[in-house]
Amino acid sequence: MIWIQAIYQPTTLFSLRPSWTTSSGGKSLLLPSPYALKTAVLDAAIRTSGLQQAEKAWPWIRDMGIGIQLPAQIVVTNLFAKILRLRRNPATPGSADVGPFQKTIAYREYVYHPQPITLAFAVPDGQAAQLGDWLAQISYLGKRGGFVQLLAPPMPLADSAGFVLLTADVSSFPLNGLVQQLDDCDPKMKFEEANIYDSKKPKRVVRHVVLPYRLAKSSRAYSLYQHTG
Amino acid sequence: MIELQSVFYIDKLTGTFADELLGAGFILVLQELYFQQGVKPVITQLDTGYSYAIECDPPLDLGRVQMDTRPFYPAPVIQTTKNQAGLPELPPMSFVSYEGEKEKRNQYIEAYKGLDKTAKRADIIGEAHPALASLPPAPHADWDIFRMINPAALIGYNGLMTQWYAVGAAGLTGTVAHLLCQMFHQSPNDVATARSTWQNVAKANGWKQIDATASQFYNPSQGKGVNRPQPDGVGLGNLDNFWLLEWLKALGLYEIGFTRTLKGVGDRKTYVPVYGRMTPTFARSVQSEFRNRMRFDETAVRSDILTVMRYLQAFLSRSQYSQGESEEERWQREMFGGGYRPADFMHGFQVAFYKDLGNAVTTMNLAFLNLPGWVTIHQDTEVETYQDVLLEHEEIIRQFEENRGDELDLLMKYRNFIVADNLAPFFEFTTAYSSWLISEGEKPGFPPRKFSTRNLRRLLVAVQPKLSEILESPGFVNIAYAIRQSTVVAQYRKAQNDRRYDVRYGLGRDLVRQSQYPDEFVAALSDFLHKYNAENAQVMENRSGPYRKSVQTGDIQEILRLIDQHGSDLIAKLLVAYGYAREPRLDEAGEPTN
For the whole model, what pTM was predicted? Predict the structure, then answer.
């Protein structure tokens, strides 16, 4: 296995709703989950190399180890946004918002990363170059619109020192840390289960990752998390 | 085999008040289990970041828990005229009649409305009054929770409570309580094993309840909405959780939650305290006093401010030394040590704001409001000092109505200060408040309330101790005096038909506006001081006294030094805050009272 580092500059705010919430809840994770990152790589693979090659690569994409370097501070903005929701009752004929959806409002959170997001991926030796190509094609993470820009070609790393591992069961974690429930791919998850055009449901596992953050300041509309390291 | 457990853990997985409710619900169950064993424990809830550790002394005997079969009913089934036919026959202490409680509340409110002002005032400040004794019984302490549950979440809620009743009736209270203790005796909590154990129990007894709908009222991030692992549709649905977790959250809401509809609208806010280190008995006494202080509906922003302020007031009053303190209260005080910050024991509130959309509600905001971290108690006498500060602030805040644009703006600025320990919005508030004070002062009626310089100083130094150098400087004090004399005092004199001195309208805003650049600020301040001294000289020449003090050259040199050291922005804002505050009243001995 070899570790590859990719540094992304977020150009918009990040948001990713945890899988244990509904769209009414609107909480956001502070960072992309392993599942989100792996499906982003799969998406880049399908778009640039074609379905067959992506399907062939799925087992090692699914099993990638992922680590992240965390910024000194993270700020979450609370707001409500206008959304479309499936209409329960038919609209009055001729009304402005006729159609299957109705306009409503919902709570949303957006996360500001003040520094670039540095990720590390563990892949089989022969796949490093391929992964590097696909990582360059990722333009957003999490909810659509959370745009990122790769700052430099992905580089090999000696090891994952300095990274918080998101895909491993850790035996020690920071005291007074902050828990994030992050989705990852189940080791048995097949390509068909990742294919959104297939009716098979994806097999996910939930990892409880304790991040070295504490809530430093907050008010009605924001929360500031400070790195405790 | 003796099975003793001294620490339990509640994982903080959601980042919402669902975690706190779960903890409070489980502590309630623990207390009941100890009670059944005839033991009076010391239970302490500690925040460890990723979980709450619940330390019990002496440890709980889990073997005895399992053997105990006595049922207990920590929360009632809510009976309504519609659902009473479908409910099982319940013992009297296990249910409440919704309509009965509603009627009781209506009678009380109707009678309360008829009280005269002196009786209402006596009630608010906690004094006795003959009219209060004739009031009907007060509404149920948990009425607001009943009202929230019925009708939106009634079926799910009653499902949880009747299932617990069935557990008790089947003599399985000990078995299920033991299951809960096993689930929480480690972190991560072993929910899977507990659920599987329950499945066996349920199967053996013919119960279908395994999971229950995750109500938005206890799980603000899990309301009815879209949640699909496969993004192939947008249909709405509810999420389910293990029913015992949901049952504990419902108990927790009664124990520590505070929920209210907002004044004049159907919107709702739910506040749940987040403890850093707390014993349930102390928490309950604070909660009880806090609820007593929060008897009336408030508007959205005022609600946030008053909740934080009044909880802190309740905390301070309960932490005061009293000769009649119980053993636990004494222990609590000893735990505080030499000096303590209430915010270390209770960090703040998890808040959910539910917007009323007519036939449904939606979560509009989830926030964390901090308890002010600047309140630190070293001596018992400081409790009274901070109570004074908080009371003064509360009286100022209660002047504002949210349906007036400028007052809403003031409230929002103040909220950003009080819930986030941030002085910048406080100075924005005091600057805007200076204009509001003068504007309201022109109107007939009771004059608007002002901060007292004494309490303002206490607050500012508590938040930023280095400000004491500025606030104690004679130059600063004298120039703030000149601002006060030219604005709020001049306006008061004008109302008394003393028109010797002009009122400088807009002075506060003008000074702060010029404070971005030191040169411009010094020029604006000099211009004001020049006019102030000239006006003083003119009045002294032509009119009788008493006269105002003039500003000396030493004062100006002093303020220039402070501007060099601390910047014009800070000095300008402090001058305005102090300049529009009132000096403390003096008692007969000439000592400042307030």
Answer: 0.94
